């Protein structure tokens, strides 16, 4: 696997505005700020998707994302907050390295998340749910 841009940030080969770092994750300002305070929280270990993380790694990633979101909320006072984690290109992932966007939001800020609702009947939802065995 080729090193991702995030791995290169972890190794300090690419400069970044880092807001938090520990042994497992790194949080830094998104270079493509949608709104002021837009932070990315990424694993230090390069894996492409959340499905490749152990539960403890995923829990830590989202715990740090939650901490960052609370500080961004207190600091920037946005009207809302979107935490977004995407996987694989068809799932809107643009960097093949698991990460969470902490995105402060404002009404009419131009950021959109749109998908077509299918609204299947309850029986179909129940059949789909039965296929998901944890």
Automatic annotation (TrEMBL):
Highest taxon of source: Bacteria
Motif (Histidine triad motif): 97-101
Record keyword Mitochondrion present: no
PROSITE patterns noted in UniProt: HIT_2
Annotated EC: 2.1.1.-
GO biological process entries: methylation
Residue ranges of coiled coil: none
Any one Gene Ontology molecular-function term assigned to this protein's record: methyltransferase activity
Protein's recorded name: HIT family protein
Lineage of the organism: Bacteria, Pseudomonadati, Pseudomonadota, Betaproteobacteria, Burkholderiales
